[in-house]
Amino acid sequence: MKKSLAFFIVFLIASTAFLLPLQASTVPYWFKEGTYIKYAMKMPYNPEKNEVNIFMIWPRLLPKDAYNRIKEVYEGDAGLFKIDNRSIISLFVTGDSHLTFEIFNVTNETALVRVTLEMNNVSVRPGVTLPRLVLSKVLHLNLSNMMYYEEDGTPIGPPMFFINPTHPPKKGDYLLTPAFLKKYGLRGNDIVVTNVSFTWMEDKILHTHYRDFIPPYLFVESKGAYIIDDLTTGESHSVLIELIYEPDTGILITTIFADMTSELTSLGVIGAIALDRVNSRKLKKIIDEGKDDREWWAQGFNLYDTNIKLPDYGSGRSPSTPAKYFFALSLVILAVIFLWTERRRKR
After folding, report:
1. Residues in Cβ contact with 193 at an 8 Å cutoff, skipping those fewer than 6 apart
2. Does the keyword Membrane apply (predicted)?
3. Which residues pair with 57 in a beta bridge?
4. What is the DSSP string of 87-119?
5. How far is CA 286 from CA 279, 280, 291, 296, 346, in A?
6. CA of 315: how far to CAs of 119, 215, 216, 293, 312, in Å?
């Protein structure tokens, strides 16, 4: 009995030592000053008529400089069009779009994240096209609860561009808080996680502009909610969010749909009908060639550039961080069962 107890104590200490580093930090190892991640939705040089991306904008959320520029172009000199802060503006984009995250001013408790959405060849209204439009804001991230906050203390929601690999999102978690939506007059359902899975494209290589990825992937989804996009008429649209993460680092590989997320909605985006049209053409080609059973092209905002050192999988892959965590935890549980069984047997 003494030997069993000694074995259990040693095993528990060793297991706890392994688990503590995983539990101690709420941010991944790469989250530090100067880190950047850039995503792209590329357009062909000569897009077809139907190859256009649409971003639905809630004017009240726009950065001030972007609001003024859009207002000037949208309303024009004739004054035939007026921005109504109670309804959306649709931006029609026929050029490349880039979404960039830059981390700075990192302390033990907080960090600043600069979020920039750059769109090229943007039609604000019929007959008026901007060669380039940039939406950019600096968001305050609380590292203890992984929540963005506005300067007045209003919680926005968790980051989209990464998750904590040891504590992935779970069903019911808010992607945007009710307090934030209410503040800006956005009415509708709660926008929460409805599905989390490690089985998305489980047998397929995923191609992005930056590099290829291999499974498993962490799939996070929100569907079923709606948001009113015209407070005068009551018109609304459904909200669909599908995000794919690399489970070892926790970084976002690609969006599938990203109608409303903390960062994009903070810039004014409350809906999107948008694809990486270059990758969509590549995907169509591999589907036509019958290769889609083993590979896939990311069609949303997919990884384009970063200074994060990503894992080199080689010919295979070790268990992801969450898998390692739960494996270690299961060993501790087995040790407890072993001790309990030994005590019963001795009796």
Report:
1. 169, 170, 171, 172, 173, 175, 220, 221, 222
2. yes
3. 89, 269
4. B-EEEEE-S-EEEEEEEES--SSEEEEEEEEEE
5. 11, 10, 5, 8, 64
6. 37, 12, 14, 19, 9
CB-CB neighbours of 2 under 10 Å: 6
* Rounded Cα–Cα distance for residues 251 and 4 (Å): 42
Token readout for 117 is 């959405």
Query: Using an 8 Å Cβ cutoff, are 274 and 47 in contact?
Result: no
Strands (E), 203-279: 205-207, 212-213, 218-228, 236-245, 252-258, 269-273
Cβ contacts of residue 58 below 8 Å, gap of 6+?
Answer: 88, 184, 186, 229, 265, 268, 269, 270
Residue 290's φ and ψ, nearest 5 degrees, are: 75, 25
Q: How far apart are CA 324 and CA 318, in angstroms?
A: 9
Q: For residues 231 and 185, is the Cβ–Cβ distance under 8 A?
A: yes
Of 205, 201, 203, 226, the C-alpha closest to 214 is 205
User: Could you tell me the two tokens for 89?
Assistant: 């503006």
Letter for the amino acid at 143? L
- How far apart CA 100 and CA 37 sit, in angstroms, is 6
CA dist., res. 93 & res. 124, Å (int): 9
Q: pLDDT 10s per residue in the chain (347 long)?
A: 555 545 444 444 444 444 444 444 578 999 999 999 999 999 999 999 999 999 999 999 999 999 999 999 999 876 667 898 999 999 999 999 999 999 999 999 999 999 999 999 999 988 889 999 999 999 999 999 999 999 999 999 999 999 998 899 999 999 999 999 999 999 999 999 999 999 999 999 999 999 999 999 999 999 999 999 999 999 999 999 999 999 999 999 999 999 999 999 999 999 999 999 999 999 999 999 999 999 999 999 999 999 999 988 765 554 445 444 444 454 456 555 655 555 566 55
